[in-house]
């Protein structure tokens, strides 16, 4: 079962205007599905692991017993979840880089071995296109 999940990681989502950034957070059921895939790739000791849509840091800690990376990179556009994820990840891993920014602008500078991420399922009908225009330009 998933490890290192806290209610705070889900509560912080309420601080985010999800329509502006089209943010989608991984449910506990989603974590379980991702764990099946991570388990299938093997241990991956010493690799660089990235979550380009980090959110509050749910996926990487929930897989910490399956993979032992040499470096962890996370990118999150929303500041509150990003800061929470940084606090959690730096307690779990020794080499952590968390960037609070737009993954579409930042991620190109990294060369991860493994990407663990929940794809951003955009609910276009709910997206406020005027407010979010700067996120996609």
Give a structural overview.
This protein has 137 residues and is of the alpha/beta class. It has a single domain (7-119), classed as Rossmann fold. The protein is built from seven helices and four strands; from the N terminus they run αααβαβαβαβα. A four-stranded parallel beta sheet has the order 3-2-1-4, covered by helices on one side. β2 (71-76), α5 and β3 form a beta-alpha-beta unit. It is globular and about 30 Å long. The protein starts with 6 loop residues before the first helix and ends with a helix. The model is unreliable at 131-137 (pLDDT under 50).
Note the main attributes of this structure.
137 residues; alpha/beta; Rossmann fold; 4-stranded parallel β-sheet; disordered C terminus
Task: Give me the Rg, rounded.
Answer: 14 Å
Secondary-structure arrangement, i.e. CATH architecture: 3-Layer(aba) Sandwich
Write down the overall mean pLDDT. 76
**Under the CATH scheme, which class?**
Alpha Beta
Instruction: Classify the fold: give the CATH topology.
Output: Rossmann fold
Distance between the termini: 39 Å
């Amino acid at each position: 079962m998933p490890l290192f999940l806290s209610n705070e990681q889900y509560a912080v989502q309420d601080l985010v205007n999800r329509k502006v950034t089209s943010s989608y957070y991984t449910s506990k059921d989603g974590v379980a599905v991702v764990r099946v895939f991570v388990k299938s790739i093997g241990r991956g000791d010493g690799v660089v692991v990235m979550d380009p849509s980090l959110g509050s840091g749910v996926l990487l800690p929930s897989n910490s017993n399956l993979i032992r990376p040499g470096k962890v990179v996370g990118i999150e556009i929303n500041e509150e979840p990003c800061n929470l994820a940084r606090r959690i990840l730096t307690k779990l891993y020794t080499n952590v880089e968390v960037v609070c920014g737009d993954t579409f602008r930042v991620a190109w500078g990294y060369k991860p071995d493994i990407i663990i991420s929940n794809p951003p399922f955009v609910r276009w009908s709910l997206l406020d296109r005027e407010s979010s225009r700067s996120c996609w330009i």
